[in-house]
Each structure stands twice: as structure tokens, then as C-alpha cells.
User: Which sequence fits this backbone?
């Protein structure tokens, strides 16, 4: 299970999808032992098949080692690491997956001229080194001066690297998917009152801009393969012209609005991977 520090405002939801998936595996005849992330770090895993929501850096390193030794690991420890912000940004942009214009910077540098030359005004600053653990790890800035001040705050907090994304106007959409399975779910989080940090209010109520759901699924599947994450979720912006850009991609989110529907497909994904491995 995921350590509580890495489930900000979603501890119950993260535990619920994990337990629901375990129940689906048990229904299909698979014995399941559930460990806390802390117990996993203390004692390791007794099985060569590991389904996990880990986020601790030490846990990720252990998962990668077990994977290298032949264990079936979902999500891959390498995939979890790929979802840290700087790695994710580099990988998505390098593989032509639609993503906001971005710059990656040290938090102790002056970025005013860089942002001006890139044509940025309002933007988002996100810690580059790891997953977001606090609201302050993702910050909306209305202008370049505010961005410079926020970057200084990151430096004072000990965060050395940051990703700065251009702010995109349009409809904010949240999505969930399972690679290799027919399950895919999307919705407008602001309209449904779904929020982790309240940032959905920046883009506000959706306009219902028409877009291609098939294309959304296609780019999410490509991102899943690129980042090596089978169980995923994230956010995207649909621009007024209907184009779509992924702005965030996460390894195993809470699936809160579609948990009942998602759990069987997560179980099927693991079973399919086990059969392929053996």
C-alpha cells in the first residue's frame, strides 16, 4: 500500500482502490497478502508478483531491484520513477506526446529573461525531483515576477529543480486508464467538485469544448507505454480549438469516481502480465 505521506487528501481513496483490486484477485483464486509500504521496506515481499502503489524513494529502489531479478512488478519501479516531474516532462516531450511548452530550471537561478524569451506569462511551477506531497509542490503563477518569487520559495524549501509549464486555457479533464484493457474514464473535475488541492478553479467550469475521446485515449496509451506505467491517471487541457495536451500523468491514482468499474480491469492487467511473464 502507499504510505500516507504520499496520499495527500486521498489516503482513504488510495486504500479503497488497492483493497478493491486485491478483492478482485482473490475472487479469481489468487491469494493476496497486503503490506504497508513501511512493512515492505522492513521485510521485503514474500512473492515474486508485486502489485504496488509505492512512492518512497527507498521502496522504488527495492522494486527496481526485484524487477531486475525477475519479479513481476506493477507498476514498475522504473515507471514510478518516470512519473517524477522532470523525468516525465523530458520523456513526454522527447516522444512527441502533446504537453505544455516547458522549461526545466534550477530553483536558485533567475528565470525572468528565460520565461520572457519563451513567451510565458501565467505559468505553473512544479517540483522537479519527486512526486507532489504538499499543495505548495505545484504552484500557479499569474506573471513572471510571481514565478521568480515562487521559485525562490522552492529553493528555500530545499527543492533544487523545478519544471515550469506554460498555463493553458481551456477545459480541464481528469482521466484514468489501465494499459492493455478496455477501461478508460474521464470527467470534468471542477464540475464534479473533485479536487486534491483546489487548483481546478484556475481553469474553472468546463465549456464542454468538443474533442476526440479516441485521440485522448490514444495519447494516454502512448504516455503509459513511454513512462512504463500500466495503471495510470492524470490531467489534460482541451483547448478552444479541440486540441489536447496532457499536463500531468500519475502512477496509480485513486480512481475515486470510478473505483468499482476500474478494480476488475486492474486485476485483469496483473493477471495478463503474470501469464506473459510465465
Assistant:
Amino acid at each position: 500500500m502507499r504510505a500516507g505521506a504520499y496520499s495527500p487528501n486521498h489516503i482513504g481513496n488510495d486504500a479503497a482502490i488497492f483493497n478493491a483490486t486485491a478483492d478482485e484477485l482473490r475472487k479469481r483464486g489468487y491469494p493476496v497478502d497486503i503490506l504497508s509500504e513501511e512493512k515492505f521496506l522492513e521485510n521485503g515481499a514474500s512473492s515474486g508478483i508485486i502489485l504496488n502503489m509505492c512512492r518512497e524513494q527507498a521502496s522504488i529502489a527495492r522494486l527496481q531491484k526485484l524487477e531486475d531479478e525477475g519479479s513481476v512488478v506493477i507498476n514498475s519501479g522504473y515507471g514510478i520513477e518516470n512519473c517524477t516531474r522532470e523525468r516525465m516532462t523530458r520523456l513526454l516531450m522527447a516522444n512527441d506526446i502533446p504537453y505544455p511548452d516547458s522549461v526545466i530550471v534550477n530553483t536558485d537561478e533567475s528565470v525572468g529573461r528565460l520565461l520572457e524569451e519563451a513567451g510565458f506569462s501565467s505559468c505553473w511551477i512544479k517540483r522537479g525531483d519527486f512526486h507532489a506531497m504538499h499543495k505548495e509542490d505545484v504552484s500557479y503563477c499569474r506573471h513572471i515576477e510571481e514565478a521568480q518569487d515562487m521559485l525562490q520559495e522552492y529553493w528555500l524549501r530545499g527543492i533544487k529543480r523545478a519544471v515550469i509549464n506554460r498555463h493553458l486555457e481551456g477545459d480541464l479533464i481528469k482521466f484514468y486508464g489501465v494499459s492493455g484493457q478496455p477501461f478508460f474514464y474521464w470527467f470534468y473535475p471542477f464540475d464534479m467538485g473533485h479536487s486534491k488541492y483546489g487548483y481546478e478553479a484556475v481553469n474553472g467550469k468546463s465549456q464542454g469544448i468538443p474533442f476526440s475521446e479516441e485521440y485522448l485515449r490514444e495519447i494516454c496509451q502512448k504516455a503509459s507505454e513511454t513512462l512504463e506505467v500500466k495503471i495510470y491517471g492524470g490531467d489534460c487541457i482541451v483547448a478552444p480549438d479541440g486540441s489536447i495536451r496532457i499536463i500531468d500523468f500519475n502512477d496509480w491514482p485513486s480512481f475515486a469516481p470510478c473505483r468499482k468499474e476500474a478494480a476488475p480491469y486492474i486485476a485483469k492487467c496483473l493477471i495478463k502480465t503474470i501469464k506473459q511473464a510465465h
About this structure: The mean pLDDT is 92. DSSP finds eleven helices and ten strands in the chain. The chain has three domains: 4-83+260-277, 101-166, 171-255.
